[in-house]
Structure formats: C-alpha cells, structure tokens
Amino acid sequence: MKQFSYLLGGIEILSQSVETQKTNKLWTIVYIKSGAGLYIIEGRLTGLNDGDVVIIPPGLSYSFSMDDLGGEYNENINASVFQFGETWLNGLLSVFRTLGGVALRLKEMKSAMSVKGTKWIRMSSVMMDLKSCPPQYQPLKILELLDLFRTPADIYPITMETAFDGADAAEKMSRIRRYIDCNLLNRITLDEIAAYSGMNRTYFCLFFKKHFGMSLTEYINFERTKKASAMLTGGSMNISDVARESGFPNVTYFNRVFRRNHGMSPTEYRNSKV
C-alpha cells in the first residue's frame, strides 16, 4: 500500500477558500479532536464540535478557511483529516477486492455525512490513532477505517444551517452597528450580539465577514481606537484613562491594537497632533 497516495494531516489542509474547493475531487474524513468552530459547505454553514466525525464526498464545495468565516472562529480546532481520491480508491480495490462494497458505498455518497452511535466510537478511535501512529502502521488503520463504511448504519446526512443569502442585510447591519455603538465600553460577546441581530452564531459569523469585511473583533477594536484617537487629539487625559474610556480591558492590549490600526503608539499619535 505504500505506493498509494493519500493526504493525512490537520485542519490546516482544509483551509482553502470556497472558490478553490469547487472542483474538489477528494473524499475527506474529518475528526474534531478538540475545539469548536464552523465551516461552509455548498454555501451553507455547519457547526464543528468536539468529537464530530464529518465525511465530505468529492464534488462538494466547502471551506474551513478563516478568510471566508472571520478571523477567530476556527483557531482552536485540533483535527485529524484523511483525504483520498478515486484513483487511490481504485488502486486499493485492485489489491483488496473484498473492499468492493465499501468502494461502492463511498462512490454513491452525494452529500456531507456525520457519524453517530457505536460506529462513531470506532471511527473516532481509528482517526485518533491514524495521525499519531508510525507510518508503517497507517495502512492497517486506513483499512480498518474504510471497513466501517461497509454498512450505512450510524452514518447520517448533515443538517446544515439556512443558506446564507444576505436577505434583509441592511436591517441586520443596522442592528449590529447599533448594538456595538451602545455597548462599545462593555464586553461584547458573539452569542449576545448574534441573538440581538436575529441570527445564530454560525450564520452571524459569515454575515459579518461578508458585509463588514473583517471579523467582529477587528471591527470592535477599530471602533474603539477611533474613539480613542478623538480623545488623544482633543484632551490631556492620560493613556490608561483613554484605554479604559474607549473600552479596552488594559493598556497593553490598547497600545498593541492602536499601533496595528494607526501605525504608531497612542503617545506618538498624540504628539503628532500637537
């Protein structure tokens, strides 16, 4: 089996844009070891949770890319990913003919699937071992993994969130801006602002990135530094007070964000306006 070519890695091998995934020709099996986040599949949002096993057949466009989803939502995910193409599958079948039923079931798969029940226990265990075991043992683990597709039991189509179509975008954007303006000095959580805007958190993430051009955190920090720059220009308030009055939790974080947005420190900015 060493001559067969497959891809094995973590979530980073899936971090491509939706556009580059439209001609995907690989079966993809993802096991989320830890963390939570979201991904896009066929224009719809789906949540990722600790322990999930997701199967995506060829021909479906999908993305785990943070450029598509907004900066912070998939950073803490630790995943095992196994990908293989039809040529690899056919080559495997030529050696192990008893896998004919497995190959047929995989080739008939047309939608993204998730694994539940007792099959999930076995598949998640194999996926955990697959990435960590020595290379010489990977072929045996792969055969064990594929054999779990022999029957359809415990493998179900994924229920995806409502398609992101931008409906009522102007009103949603207005509500989001209003919420941020009124809570700029407070801690703004994703769940709270999503609920106020009439969206669940996964839908909100993609909506915000698409219509504001940045992540929620980036936008909030931009608005806070804009408020801070006005205070730095028009008064003699010390830097720590400016940080607090513009909504930043501490001076160190304020200095770092301000420099990122303005290219200079708050003190340098104040001096440049004298």
In short:
The protein is 48% helix and 15% strand. With 274 residues, the protein is α+β, with helices and mostly antiparallel strands.
Structure description:
By secondary structure, the protein is an alpha+beta fold. The chain is 48% helix and 15% strand. It contains 13 helices and 9 strands. It has helices at 18-21, 66-69, 86-95, 100-108, 117-132, 138-147, 169-182, 190-196, 201-212, 216-234, 239-245, 251-262, 266-272; strands spanning 7-9, 26-34, 37-41, 44-48, 53-56, 62-63, 78-85, 113-115, 155-157. The strands form 2 sheets. It has a 6-stranded antiparallel β-sheet with strand order 1-7-2-5-8-9. Strand 3 (37-41) and strand 4 form a beta hairpin. The longest helix is centred in the C-terminal third of the chain and has 19 residues, at 216-234. The radius of gyration is 24 Å and the shape is elongated. The model is unreliable at 161-167 (pLDDT under 50).
Task: State the main characteristics.
three-stranded antiparallel β-sheet; 274 residues; alpha+beta
What about the largest sheet?
6 strands, antiparallel
Helix-strand string: EHEEEEEHEHHEHHEHHHHHHH
Question: Over the alpha carbons, how many angstroms does the gyration radius reach?
Answer: 24 Å
Shape: elongated
> What percentage of residues falls in helices of 4 or more residues?
40-55%
**Count of DSSP-assigned helices:** 13
- The strands making up the biggest β-sheet line up spatially as 1-7-2-5-8-9
The total strand number stands at 9
Report low-confidence residues grouped into runs of 5 or more.
161-167
Structural class: alpha+beta
Beta-strand fraction estimate: 15-25%
Distance N terminus to C terminus? 71 Å
| Overall pLDDT level | 83
